[in-house]
Every structure is written in C-alpha cells, then in structure tokens.
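Thread: quick sanity check before group meeting

JM: Hey all, I'm pulling together slides for Thursday and realized we never actually wrote out the predicted structure for the chain we discussed last week. Dropping the sequence here so it's in one place. If anyone has concerns about the input, flag it before I start.
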Amino acid sequence: MTQRSWNIDYGPLRGFYRDQENAWIFGVCAGIADRFNFRLSTVRIIAVICLVLFFWLTAAVYIAATLLIKEKPLVYSGRRSEYEFWRRHQRDYWSES
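JM (edit): ok, ran it. Output follows.
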C-alpha cells in the first residue's frame, strides 16, 4: 500500500478513483494505475495503443469512466502532529467566523 493511498483518518482508501494529481487529462489512467498497482507509464502506453487501434471504443470508455468515476479525495501524507495542529486551527477559524 503506497502512502499516497492512505488516509490518516480512515485508513486505506477503498474503491476506484480518478487521480487528478497525476493526471494528464482527467486522471483515469492514473486512477487505474494506482488502484491495480501498475506503473502509470505502462497504463498510458496501453491507453494510447488502444486509442490508435480502437479509437471510438476507447474514446467512449474513457469518457464514460471520466463521468462515472469520482475524483480521488485529497490525502495528507505528513506527520500526525502537523495534521492535528492544522485540523484544530481550521476548526477554530470556522467557529470564529
């Protein structure tokens, strides 16, 4: 399990997400690579080959995946003490407003 896919509050992220942080277009290939633990470059090469060979089918699947798969939530990967500090600070800020 990579640290990128670990949420400090809830443990490992479950499910399938589009990864906007590592995306070129909409993050579908990055999400597939992260979910199934593949190399991102390999997934992108396969996607481009499929796009050349089966343009309409690949384009339709990619657009459907973009619309149906939700975006990956932001994950904090720093130290727990920093996380708690900023979390408390954020709550204080919103309660004073």
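AS: nice. The chain has one domain: 3-96. The mean pLDDT is 78.
JM: adding both to the slides.
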